[in-house]
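Teaching assistant here, posting this on the class forum so everyone can see the example we discussed in section. The complex has two components, and the goal was to see what a joint structure prediction looks like when all of them are supplied at once.
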Amino acid sequence: MRYKYLNIIEIISILFVVWLTFIFMLLFIDIYIVPLQLPLVDYVGRVIIGVTKVIIGVGLFVLWLFLWNYIVKKYFKKAINTIQREENRESGNLS
Amino acid sequence: MQFNYPEFLYPALSFIVSLGITYAILPSLIKYLKKRGIIGTDIHKPSKPEIPEMGGLAILVGLISTQVLLLFLLNEYTYEILAFISVILLTGFIGIYDDLKGLGPKKKPLLLTLLSMFTVFPLLLFGVVTPRPLLPIIGRTRLTIIYWIVLLIAIAVPANAVNMLDVFNGSMPVTCIIASIALLICAIILDSPIGIIFTLSLLGTLLAFFKFNKFPSKVFSGNVGSLTVGATIGAIAVIGRLEIAAIVALMPHIMNAFHILTSMGGLKEGKTLPKRPILILPNGKLAANPDKDAPLTLTRLVLARGPLTEVEIVKIFGILSLFCAILAIISVGITPR
């Protein structure tokens, strides 16, 4: 029972961190990426600026996904190892 | 918000009609599916009972018939309703084909992406969608390039994500009912009448379906049901201008789909997987497969600290969805308008 609720809190914490980083990422894009200007004024220049903004935005999004993936994998590994250690200890006590 | 009579009537009508039609259809549909032998095995129970599949047809019929009715009543939203119907119908047909013939996970997202591209054209033609989403803290933004790129996957991602979490009795309706309630509250906050009407329609049909899909299930939704519900949420997000709210409310679904894809190294047929993510114990409880090669799903994550029953897992899914629903409402709450 204790583990069940601990698990919910842990996954909720992951979701909260993911949400918070998502909000910060949007804020970062709005403050730094959207107003980004390069010394290019013609049509091609405007296209280059637009494409650069999209690439940086997509790159940040991919980075955010990797962070999410990393946190979840770390958590899962830790949780499984803890359970297996406890099971080994219990079976050791029984024998 | 200007919901005077008779405008107040339409959201109520949307909810009651979709709930009533879905609820009325399901018992006869279950009998028909049994008779036709359209059944699936409930693999998470030790007795492996056979349950009628494609109950999601009632969801599809409930949603479409409600929208057709509203099409005659709400003249100011004709284009929005037509776009909504086209998204639901196209996705529903893919789901039916997938259930009857088998589409394979490689074709399904591709087909859905292509179809969502088609649904974008009428939206553009009638000027229903503008690339100015409301973002938390920032407010209204002009995303002239990136919005159209994201729009191409706006139906495919939620449809597949909801489909991937439809794994236990009641898991799809429970999580999507909570997400729909969050979208409804966000639509009210953001003053999106069409968002309110569409969300209430989805909520009605899901509540009716939950009565038959909850543990122990009398019917499964099938791909037709889960894909339709996911696509409906995607369509509500785009047409109702609830993009961020939908992303946050569907975070458990997206988390599940994303980790399945990353741990499996791409889209692969579920049946051909060498390792299953969860194991069924002799006492009927489900446990996470400790094998490091098994795909990482949300269920496996939930079971990481010990075995649980199917009902307990669905309850945890519900709690996670509820938390994300609160985050979605907060996201909209901190959005300047």
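For the discussion questions: The first helix of chain A runs from residue 2 to 33. The interface with chain B takes residues 3-4, 6-8, 11-12, 15-16, 18-19, 22-23, 26-27, 30, 34, 50-51, 53-54, 57-58, 65, 68-69, 72-73, 75-76, 79-80, 82-84 of chain A (CB under 8 Å). Think about how each of these relates to the inputs above.
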